[in-house]
Amino acid sequence: MMSCKMATKFVFLLTFLFLVLVFELGSARLTSGVIPALPKEEVSALNAVMDSKSYNYCNDTELMHENLFVVCNCSYEKNTVCHVTKISILNADLNIATINGEVGKLKFLESITIKGTKLSGSIPNDLGNLSALKYLVLSRNSLNGSIPESLGQLRALEVLDLYNNFLTGSIPSSLANLFSLESLDLSYNLLSGQIPQALGNLSNLRGMYLFQNNLSGNIPPELGSLSRLDTLFTGKLPENYANLTSRRLVVQ
Description:
Elements: H1 4-32, H2 40-49, H3 62-65, E1 68-75, H4 76-79, E2 81-89, E3 111-114, E4 120-121, E5 135-137, E6 142-145, E7 159-161, E8 166-167, E9 183-185, E10 192-193, E11 207-209, E12 214-215, E13 230-233, E14 249-251
């Protein structure tokens, strides 16, 4: 037979477990009733990037009708907080004049595509703050100025596409720090100077497109060690390229 003292302890334990269960269920109901939201600083940054248009960025279907896509991950803090992971703007009619430096506050961004728009001005240094960024595509716009050295901080970057703009200056040697880079397209710009030797460190590079610029000098021999590279260059090929038969070379 269970003693009275033991029975009292058993009842107390059951009561405690019951209260814990009620609390957990109540918390789950409260959490499930919360609509995931973007932090205010990300909303402010998006409003600046999107020319101050006020959208419900993570849930607004109007964006897709304008070829303007914003993708969010809303799994943070038990599905109550969202963060922007992708921005894609493909509509030439959108009035996005420049890339605002506020974009550097979108710390969870993995992909930016602004392609074939009326985008002008320079590329902001703040893009170098986006440590999670894997894809940066700003092709077929009217960007000018130089390529920021800060882009060399984007260690997760796999694709850098600045094709067909009006970019000037030299190719930053800091791009040699992009060890995850697989594709580099700087073609159809106004870049000058020599191709940095340090780009020979980009062992994952598969495509490098630098034609239709004002580059000078020969292709650095260091690039001959990039066995995965499918290259399009301007200039005279170094001798060590002759041993790399697994690639397609186009010299213009």
